[in-house]
Amino acid sequence: MTTTRFAPSPTGYIHIGNLRTALMNYMIARKAGGTFILRLDDTDPERSKQEYADAIQEDLEWLGLTWDRVERQSDRLDRYMAAADSLRDKGRFYEGFETPVELDLKRKKQLNMGKPPVYDRAALALSEDEKAALRAERSPHWRFKLDQERINWTDGVLGDISIDAASVSDPVLIRGDGQVLYTLASVVDDTDMGVTHVVRGSDHVTNTATQIQIMAALGHGHPEFAHHSLLTGPQGEALSKRLGTLALRDLRAAGVEPMALLSLMARLGSSQPVEMHLSLDELIDGFDISNFGSAPTKFDADDLKPLTARALAAMPFDKMADDIAALGVPGDIAPQFWEVVKGNIATRGEMADWWSLMRDGASATVAEEDAAFITEAFGLLPEPPYGPDAWATWTSAVKEATGRKGRGLFMPLRHAVTGRSHGPEMAELMPLLQTKPQA
Ligand code: GLU
Fold first, then answer.
1. Deepest in the core among 250, 346, 379, 383, taking most CB within 10 A?
2. Does ligand 1 come within 6 angstroms of the Cβ of 9?
3. CA nearest 257: which of 330, 350, 365?
4. What is the pLDDT of residue 439?
């Protein structure tokens, strides 16, 4: 059965880059009728916070990306230790004693000599006595001993990949302080949980090579891998530093609609056009990871604005009923309110502006040359409630009384009633006015 997972570390809020990963894994699972796991990679007890774990779930729920179950790596430490024992038994796990500072120095020396900064395996040359002496001083970290051969796989996005394990450092799987690192935990989880497809960012390609070997050393095959390109800003600039400001919760607070965000991110970087889709099911139907390219993908948060306006214009009333009720719009006019407003808002928050003008009237500044006209026109306006013909009846009366017509008639009236020069059809808006407009 197709099983995928989204595996964020609860060390911060999830952002637009994480969303791409989450969405692709979600769509693969849903399209196949499989299982989508939310896995919290929380083996770092200092940086992982419950508050972030909650926030991740809240953000995914906002988007409707439902998961079948949650797994926490901190609940599975015994499984990782068992895998570590097995690797040790197989001669594929060894202790290193270098401090981070020593390792850093080694890397710098290699780089100075024009060599790739690959761990030199000095720890493998230590005698038992030397190791015993070092153990008395410090606790070792543990590395997986790579087989120095080429590691090959066919990537769902990148195609055939071949990485020479000799060009990669033996990965540290357990730190000196005993903390299990992501690589080991991820390998064990993906195997134990029967994960069939792993989609993640192309910054994980080297990890994948080592993970394939670790899985093999533990006696397992590996899932299908696909590495999507990383996002850049609109000019191709690195987005990594700005991702903090592109957290999903900030986009939500800015009024971005879930379907606008999903419609963009489910297609951006693929050969398919970005179109407004009204449901996740539509996005899932048309999704195929092989349509995605390996080139960095430009992301422009401004693209979310027109999509959000379109998502709102297409939104059925029942999905907005709660928000509309919360504004205080009476239930009997709420559906009509939505019909009139939905094509005239950039965010759902802007509904409040329309409601306040309907309820209380607008504060419009009337141009000097229109002042007498508006006073006369408003004198011809009866008290609400207004019917569907109110606008036609009123404007004909004003036309007759003042001789104005066309734009010179309609625009000043629209402006005086709404305080704006654009908006819904006045004939549709008038019946929603709760108070008589005041000049
Ligand atoms: N916690 C890892 C990350 O967020 C997961 C990577 C993976 O999907 O394996 O980068």
1. 250
2. yes
3. 350
4. 73
pTM above 0.90, yes or no: yes
Could you tell me the residue range of the domain that residue 285 belongs to? Answer: 233-312
240 part of a folded domain:
yes
**Domain containing residue 401: CATH number:** 1.10.10
Q: Whose CA is nearest to atom 5 of ligand 1?
A: 7
- For residue 41 and ligand 1, the question of a CB distance below 6 A is answered with yes
> Encoding tokens for residue 303?
């693209």
Closest residue by CA, ligand 1 atom 4: 8
> What tokens does 261 get?
């965000």
pLDDT in tens, 368-393: 999 999 999 999 999 999 999 999 99
| Ligand 1 atom closest to the CA of 200, numbered from 1 | 8
The span from the CA of 46 to the CA of 399, in Å, is 73
| b/e burial code for range 209-227 (CB count within 10 A of at least 16 → b) | bbbbbbbebbeeebbbbbb
Residue type, 134: L
What is the model's pLDDT at position 364? 81
Return all residues near 220 (Cβ < 8 A) that are at least 6 apart: 191
Distance of alpha carbon 244 from alpha carbon 233, whole angstroms: 13
